[in-house]
Amino acid sequence: MPDSPLFTAAAIAVIVLAVAVVVGVGLKVIRSFRDLGTDAERATYNTLHAASRAGQHLRGGLHAAGAAKASRQLRMLLGCDALAITDTDSVLAWDGVAEELRPSLMRLASDVLATGRTAVVPHAGPPAPAKSEHGHHEFSAVIAPIRAGSKVVGSVAALAPAAGAGLVRATSEVADWIAAQLELAELEASRTLLMEAEVRALRAQISPHFIYNSLNAIASFINTDPARARELVVEFADFTRYSFRRHGDFTTVAEELRCIDRYLLLERARFGERVQVSLRIAPEVLSTVIPFLSLQPLVENAVRHGLEAKEGPGHITICANDSGAFAEVTIEDDGVGMDPEHLRSVLAGHTDGEHVGLRNVDARLRQVYGDEHGLVIETAPGEGTLITMRVPKSQPGHDA
After folding, report:
1. Which of 9, 57, 202, 229 has a CA positioned 20 to 30 A from the CA of residue 303?
2. Is 127 within 8 Å of 140 (Cβ atoms)?
3. Measured in whole angstroms, how far is the alpha carbon of residue 390 from the centre of its chain?
4. Rounded CA gap, 242 and 296, in Å?
């Protein structure tokens, strides 16, 4: 019967169970919401996320394209109606309302650019034809300088209905933050120029020593073995084409080994059987990206400073192994070796003119991958030299 006590009890039980399920789901939703953090933690995350995204666009320097992409994120950080970024000559970016004030901004920013002091302009321009999102017709502007060292290179302008002390401080902080991003961009550019200069130094080292000797070796075969001379000319051309190429700071292990093969072919034309070479190369590391001209100078060091001064034949062993997340390349010779203290002085740059290639390669590896990836060199007088280089196999930011 529908109104029986048993039926009523069952109905109540079903309702209680449904309520319990709803409450359980609700608690789960609330708990998952709490897992996202408190309001303060979420606000911190949003701030850092916006700053990170803006920073990516400013790492190339202060130019219109990057400033335009960064300005929206920075306006969100400041919570202002409009934000503009300028250099010393023009407005690079404008995000938000009241863009009709853009033509007059450089005039308003002129004192800031000249003095390097933040300025507040109570009435930044004529009333806008339409109300802002806050319902005001007129804006105040806070304009803060962007400094690069002691020089002002631009400005940040934040427009709001009223310019309180909080907005003034926040705008100045944003300007300082942009300046820090520009310093990082300049540092990256300097690092790139330094790497290019070091590669040029290696090319200069190759040029007078190796080229002169190679041409002499080729000349010696012109009358006695013309076919060999032609072969050496082709190898010499390929070697110099690779060594003096103008594109890219990186290459692959395979390309560098091809360069080494040509180099050793030309050196064997000089030394004959005095230079013996063994190769043990794991195929899976051939595509690993490495800094351009980072292996060839090590082999050249083994020939010039290890075997050339040794009496009788000398042996060079070149190995490239797969070592988990890294590719490990070793170059070993049984030449005259060197004093470890002298080697430390060479790598520290305290000794000029000797082992330029070793010092150059070691410095570039540390710049690109960190100090833990510098060359590891084991040597002693009369004991030969073993050089080990470890580089990550995965390098998303480097293209060969």
Report:
1. 229
2. no
3. 18
4. 11
Residue ending a domain, among 170, 187, 204, is 187
Structural domains of the chain, count: 2
Q: Are residues 129 and 258 in the same domain?
A: no
Q: d(Cα 284, Cα 287) in Å, to the nearest integer?
A: 7
Range of the domain at 82: 39-187
Judge whether 397 lies within some domain.
Answer: no
pLDDT by position in tens, the chain (length 400): 444 555 455 555 545 454 454 445 454 544 544 454 666 655 555 656 566 666 676 767 788 888 888 888 888 888 899 999 999 999 999 999 888 889 999 999 999 999 999 999 887 665 444 444 444 457 889 999 998 878 899 999 999 988 888 899 989 988 988 888 887 777 666 666 555 666 665 555 554 667 777 888 888 888 888 898 888 898 888 888 887 765 668 899 999 999 999 989 988 888 888 889 999 999 999 999 998 889 988 998 898 888 888 888 999 999 999 999 999 999 999 999 989 998 888 887 776 656 777 888 898 898 889 889 999 999 999 999 999 999 999 888 787 6
- Angle, in degrees to the nearest 10, between helices 165-206 and 39-58: 40
Kindly state whether residues 85 and 171 are assigned to the same domain: yes
Residue 203 forms part of a structural domain = no
Same domain (yes/no): 182, 290: no
